[in-house]
Amino acid sequence: MDQDQARSWLSTALAEARAGLAEGGIPIGAALYGADGTLLGRGHNRRVQDGDPSAHAETAAFRAAGRQRSYRGTTMVTTLSPCWYCSGLVRQFGISRVVVGEAETFHGGHDWLAEHGVEVLVLDDPECAALMREFIGKNPELWNEDIGDERDE
Asked: What are the angstrom distances between the C-alpha of 89 and each of 2, 105, 118?
């Protein structure tokens, strides 16, 4: 995948992450692009806003895209390495590529996806990483809840 195109698409996901943060939620955003480069759907993590533990950014973008005949050739763009739940969504529906803004603050399932034939591009975007580091620093309990870490703070 072309890095310039990936960075351009990441800007959509980053705008979603900022929108989620502005709503009092977790700043993770995603977008699903079609094989022809058309934006099919976009969304952000809404676990806090909706009280729904399954309302992850990738899920929101996927749902916003609506039903597709096939997901072959599509690209999921996300500001953060996808968790196991969202990685499973990518595999289940045969999404071809995943562009990850950063995997420094959370190393999700992108290696597993790559091992199973999904093209993965990790951009190591400093803006995505800074957004998450700041959020995690201010909201460790909420972050640990989001990633399923039940340790006591």
From this structure: 24, 21, 12
